[in-house]
Amino acid sequence: MSNTNHSDKRHSNGANNRHKQNGVTSSSQKMGKASPRYRPSRNQGPVTEDERLLRRPTQPLISPKAPVPQEQVREEEHALDRALHFDFTLTDPWRVLRIMSEFVNGFDALAHIPPSVAVFGSARVKPGDPTYQAAEETARLLAQAGFGIITGGGPGVMEAANKGAQEEGACSVGCNIELPFEQSANPYLDISLDFSYFFVRKTMFIKYAEAFVIFPGGFGTMDELFEALTLIQTRKVNHFPVILYNSKYWGGLTAWLNETMLTAGAISEEDALLLRVSDDPQEICQFVTEAYQELYRADKKQNPDIREQLIR
């Protein structure tokens, strides 16, 4: 009996190995693994506050013409009782107070910073990398011109920009975000803020930055880039410079915007001009400085200082 079992196992293992070698997978093996795209979550770590806010419980799909299931009837009958005994601090209305506190803390901390430039880019860039060096040099030049620097507060391009600003004695701000994987603040921050909600954090960038300088990066960098472009396009904010560093890296994107989106009429020629591309930190600094000085002169002309009005 024992010998037969061992023989069967060897035969089974050998057959499985042959299937693998030949690239053959049985239908049962295919059905056993869900596509990664549709798995509930790849995050095995702690659930962040952002995730809790944006997550909704799943519900059964019911046709509008179908009778209401008895299970749903019972759920609705006991909904009030459950609500009365549910911990309010776990609900979305309570979460609104947390969101409000993040806005208050952010506005309070950044209300008195000097005119500043937001610098974005990959957290994966290492010191010594040309992109890291370019971000540090750009921030240093902007600091010499009188600007503070705001970043996401993490490593990579963010660290390089904060380092360049702080070493020149300029205000260096980091707006960090709670993530499933830990992202610690870089050591070059004068003001370090921690946010649980991406949309609160992005509001700080938009509100307190006079320009966006975008270095090569990934999804997060793209999110911040197009958030700014959308708000400028829809005139929710004043038109401020949005500059892409590294024409080779961004060339495919800018070509697609001009050759596909613009040609299809999805954006206007004016929209296509919202982006500027440069490979020179000195040119970036000059453009940001000139744009801000022009805005300053326009503001002074439209809204002269109250003391000047009183003197006249």
TrEMBL record:
It comes from Ktedonosporobacter rubrisoli. GO terms for molecular function: hydrolase activity. It comes from the Bacteria. SUPFAM superfamilies: MCP/YpsA-like (SSF102405). Signal peptide: none annotated. Residues 1-11 have a biased composition (Basic and acidic residues). Residues 1-76 are annotated as: Disordered. This is TIGR00730 family Rossman fold protein. GO terms for cellular component: cytosol.
